[in-house]
Amino acid sequence: SPALAVGMLLFFISISWLTEIIVESTAYPLWGIGLTIFSLAWIGQFYGHKIEGKKPSFLKDIQFLLIGPIWLLNFIYQKFGIKT
Predict the structure, then answer these.
(1) 0.90 exceeded by the pTM?
(2) pLDDT (tens digit, 9 = 90+) per residue, 34-72?
(3) Which H helix or E strand runs over 71?
(4) What does the alpha-carbon distance between residue 10 and residue 4 come to, in Å, rounded to a whole number?
(5) CA dist 33 to 36, 54, 57, 78, Å?
(6) 78 contacts 4 by C-beta, under 8 angstroms
């Protein structure tokens, strides 16, 4: 979908920009910040799945891990009435 492609491109550009801001504004190494965010996100992911009562889909098939961000963007588009 062209709309999803543009959305993901804008997302990656904004994440790159945010990364540059983090690198320039803190004395902590970027790998340490990234590892902390990654660890907290995984904890949140598994806690959420425990509350939901379902196993994460990506444990069945790695494809679900790779398409997760696009799936989420599609969900956001639907909420705002944007056609994909």
Answers:
(1) no
(2) 999 999 998 998 898 889 887 777 666 777 777 888 989
(3) helix 62-80
(4) 10
(5) 5, 29, 27, 32
(6) no
